[in-house]
Design brief:
alpha+beta; 15% strand; disordered N terminus; disordered C terminus
Amino acid sequence: MCRPIPRSGARASAPRMSCGPRRWCMRKSVDRVLNLSTAALIMSSFLALSSAPMLGLEIMVLGLLLLSLQPLGAFLDRSFRWYRYLTTAVTALFAVSLPLWLAFLGLLPGVIALIIYIMAHKVAHQKERKDYIHLFLMCFLLLVAACGLGPEAVIGLAMLCFLLSAVWAFLALQIRTEAAQVGPSGLADVIRLSDREPSPTSPSSSLLDWGIVRSVGAVCLAAVVLTAGLFFGVPRVEAGLFGRSNLLTPAAAHRTGLGDLVEVGRGGRIEIDRSPVMRVEFPDIPDGQYTGPLYWPSSTMDTFTAGVWERLGGPYAIRDVRRRQNLLPVNERNVVAREPLGRGRQVRQVIYLDDVPRGGLPCLASPLRVKCDGATISWNQDEDGYFVQVDRLRAGRVSYEVISEVETPAPSQLRDARTDYRQSMSGQDYFLLMRHSLQER
């Protein structure tokens, strides 16, 4: 170690600087923290992906594979030029085939595949500051993408690990960058000149002492508390700033009732519409009190576009390929009928409807005979054949009599029921339902 001799007249207790060569040890400790926090950040993003039901824990194997190949990739990038040419060619090939990946996987899975490839490219090479920033950004985008896949509650643990790892990763990257910019001249030992042999005031050769660790721990705790406070304090359904709607443009309330479409991606305040929609009587039941299932289907919504379910019919109609009941001939245009299957209880109901929906007449499940006063009706052959559509409405209000065959399956029948919907639906309709409403969780 190089120790300068004090000038004449200098006080013996005055501290002087010595250019001890400890830069390598300091840089190594910072690099170790940076590598560990970056690995934790990568695994946190893959843990978030694994919380999605469509991916599962198998995706974690890919994250472990990336981390295991990191030393080999850095060595090849540092030692061989052909390795850089090879990875550049693979990147160009991936960029050219990206439209095929998007068409084959879909938009969101294709974007996830692109993010994972960028992460793998950064991990498999030597990294400068900008490379670490890009890698951190890809980890964050992977976390955001996982939120769009309907994740389970374990994503909360992934977010916590991601937050703590991000604090340490950015700290280590900043210290590493500043240490590289200062150079050897800035890394000096402080030595007190005394009668005895001079030695450094601090034998530690690490830039990350316990003072910095305690400070960063306090920052991590504050970040967790602040994030948890925002999560529990701010509503998450379009409720405005801190739960209050905009005073200048108050949010419109949505009212319940019969509608022709369902907007899945829309939220807000809901008001109950207590005005009567329809009146139902059960003449054959004592006291008119029907205790069976009150399920009133009227139509199907067959198209899902941009977060909206709606009924278009025609080529978009959902067609049931199950065996249908034979239709019975009738001589009146306001009457429809068909043969019963003999699998349920026949319930007669008289319904008074003020506002007729566009899709069809609400009836108890599986209507057998419908007689309507005030409209001409027919079976909806474009749908599944179980709905009654209004062909011509003579007045604003209608009343109709329905005999439905209501089947109430036993719990054992429900447990033994098959789940292979392909046998009862067309391929196009099966894909539509499985993609948007029948995801296994």
